[in-house]
Amino acid sequence: MSRRHQNFRNYRQEQRLTQHRLIAAALFVLLMAIILMARLFYLQVIEHDLYQTKADDNRVMLVTEPPPRGLIYDRNDVILADNRPIHSLTITPERVDDFSQLKKQLSGIIEISDAEWEDFDDRRKEYRRPYQSLTLKSQLTDEEWAKVAVDLYRLDGVQVEAQLTRYYPYGEAFAHAVGYVGRITSKDLETVDRQAYQGALFIGKTGVEGYYEKTLFGEAGLSKVEVNARGRIMSELDRQNPTPGKDLHLFLDARLQQYAYDLLGDYTGSVVAIDPTTGGILALVSKPGYDPNLFVRGISYDDYNVLRQSKKLPLFNRALRGGYPPASTIKPFMALAGLEYGFASWTERYFAKGYYQINPDGRRYRDWKRTGHGWIDLERSIIESVDTYYYQLANKMGITPIHNFLTRFGFGQSNLLDLNGQSNGLLPSNEWKKAKYKEPWYPGDSVNVGIGQGFMVATPVQIASATSALASRGHYFYPRMTNTVGDEPAVFENGLGDEHDIVLKDQRNWERMVVAMRKVITDSHGTARRLQGTEYEIAGKTGTGQVFSLQEDQEYDADSLEKRLHDHALFIGFAPAKQPKISIFAIFENGGSSSKPADLSRALFDAYLYDDYPDRYDYLKGNKNEG
Q1: Is 328 among the residues known to form the active site?
Q2: Predicted confidence (pLDDT) per residue in 228-264, tens digit
Q3: Pick the catalytic residue: 138, 270, 286, 328?
Q4: Per-residue model confidence as pLDDT tens digits over 72-93
Q5: Residue 124: burial class (beta carbons within 10 Å; 0-12, 13-18, 19+)
Q6: Which helix (H) or strand (E) holds 460?
């Protein structure tokens, strides 16, 4: 059987088939080799530049280095915002195998709060560069630094790093003016260049720090580094050093600022002082303040809760956002409006009773002097602050001329050039009341506005800048904080002009109004006659702002009222009256008597004009002042 089967086998055919298979396999291998070589040629030669770039992108990374933040100085080179070196405890998460074990180890060495660990864990979950260290505890004491240094060898991923942090040496008196920096949040990163701020810890939040963030931050440095497959930096290939932020020199006078803050005593309130020749803010005080250093590294919940729940609202910037009735400080502007539109004259006499009525049988609008002032003229209405004169003037004018004229002085608008968050206040109009209350404007509304009450609300900065325009006889500067940026004058980009003139039909009215305001101090019946006796002339106007409305025949009795219902005490003034160098607005909330802000202003005039500060403020004197 096997012999018969052997006769059927064709060895030649099997040999040819094997040869064909070998040839086919060889051809297939050759074809694959050709394809592989062609692909290799395509990748290595034709697409070399593309894939070389991609390989470098995986191997080479750009790492940003935050620049040193610019410093903030007052007008005499006193540093108001500094950079202070500190030592911080940092952790590189990629180098830690067991965080629970690390937490136990560190807790046995120094005290680390639960809030610090929670903050660290939150930032660890956010996007960051691989092997970038994160701060766990900042501002280590020398003792803490020493304790950690002893055990660093057994704490994988833990380092003590030297860092620059923002420091505000003069605390709460400057908080609302200078502002503060705080930790960068995800919300902050939506408004800035993420690449530039990679690795940065802080960003300006409020005040000058917030407004000039881009200028103070500078330009981040760039390092081209080689990394391994896990993203860890192996070597530095190239480096571009960061450009430090530019320094700011403010118009602010540190001694004047601190002195004004202290003179407010236990009262809440605000003081704004302006140089009428430049519009530069010499003092911007809101009391109470707070320690801005609390916010730099992240304020604790307990500390923030204390500030937030305080009835005195220390976080509220009264100078920019406080809405107050300007009260009788509005009378010089009202008088100028009456003169401008022909509703008043310097010679016309008016018999001032103790009240004013729109209609013979209507409501009686009371004067502060119940017995009345008798026959007066416009000048006397300023000297004695005659309410009834301005009741009748406002009623004759109506709200439209009042609104149009006061707008020229910056009322009802945000006029501050380089601080964010200023309130517009409220300069009412017929249109505003229709939109707000669906009611027409009544004569009684005008009567109340005539003495700076009713619907009208203004901020301290607005009243101060209007006073500065009055001091300069109509030369209006938009108020500003910053004098120079680096070595160049500050340039503002918010659409407001640097200055403009308020031109009256009769320019002599400026000087006559200054004379009337001077007599507020020098006249025996002047409401600020307590300021007599200075070697220079002061022009001023007192004001008493009602916190609540009295009924027609109701008497104001401060002794029977809670402190929070006492009248606000206000004062505007400038000195020397002929060629003013400083104008001031001051308000004591619920201060009652306008003597308080008048006395404060007198003290500030003496200090600024004659360098007559108490010795305890010498530490704020500065290099320029000493020279």
Answers
A1: yes
A2: 655 555 666 667 788 899 999 999 999 999 999 999 9
A3: 328
A4: 999 999 999 999 988 888 888 8
A5: middle
A6: helix 460-471
